[in-house]
Amino acid sequence: MKRITFYLDFISPYAWLAFERLPEVLEGLSYSVAYKPVLLGALLAQHANPGPAGIAPKRDWTYRHVTWLGHAHGIGLQMPARHPFNPLPLLRQALACSDDGTINRYVAGTVLRHVWQGGQDALDAGRMVTLAAALAEQLRPGQDIASEAPKALLRANTEAAQAAGVFGVPAFEVDGKVFWGLDGLPMLRAYLEGDDWFSGAEGEARWAAPALHPSGIKQA
User: What pTM value is reported for the model?
Assistant: First the structure.
C-alpha cells in the first residue's frame, strides 16, 4: 500500500476540487492518505510567486475556471464572499484536531466545505463558531484555534512541504515524488499503477530530466 501525503490549504479552490476528485480518480488502488495543512502564502513567497490572485486578469480567470470545473465534475463550488482571505484561523482550527500535523478526511472535508460551499464569508465570526462546534469531537485535549500546538504544527508542515519541493497546493507526495494540482491526479494514478513511464533507470531519468535543462533566460 502506498502512502500519499496530500498538502492542502483551505484557501485553494483546487484543493477542494482535488479533495473531492481523489477517491474517484484513484478508485481500485491500494493507498492511504495523510492530509497535511500548509500555509500556501509561505510556499508562494519562497519562490516570489504572487499566486493567481496577485495578477488581476488571472484572478478573474481562476475564479471563473474553478466555478466551471465544479460544474463539470458535479462538485458544489461557490466562491466565498471574500477571496483571497487570511487562512490562518482555518488552518489552526484544523490542526487543533491533530497530534502530528496530519488531519483526517472528516476534518479536511468539514473545513473545505465551510469555505467552498454556500458562497459565504469564510472568516465570519458566527460561522467560525459553528465550524468549531462541528469539529468539537475531533479536537485534541486542551487545544483550540489559539493554542500554540496548532501553530507549531502548521510551521512544521509548511517547512516539510518546502523541503519536499512543494511549491503550491494541492500537492501529493509519494515515494519522494511530488505531483501537483488537480490536473496532476491522472499522473499520480499512473505512478501508483506502475506505469512503465516511471519504471527502472529510464523512468528515474525521465523524472530527473527537467533539472538537467538550463534556463535560456538570464535572471535580472
Answer: 0.96
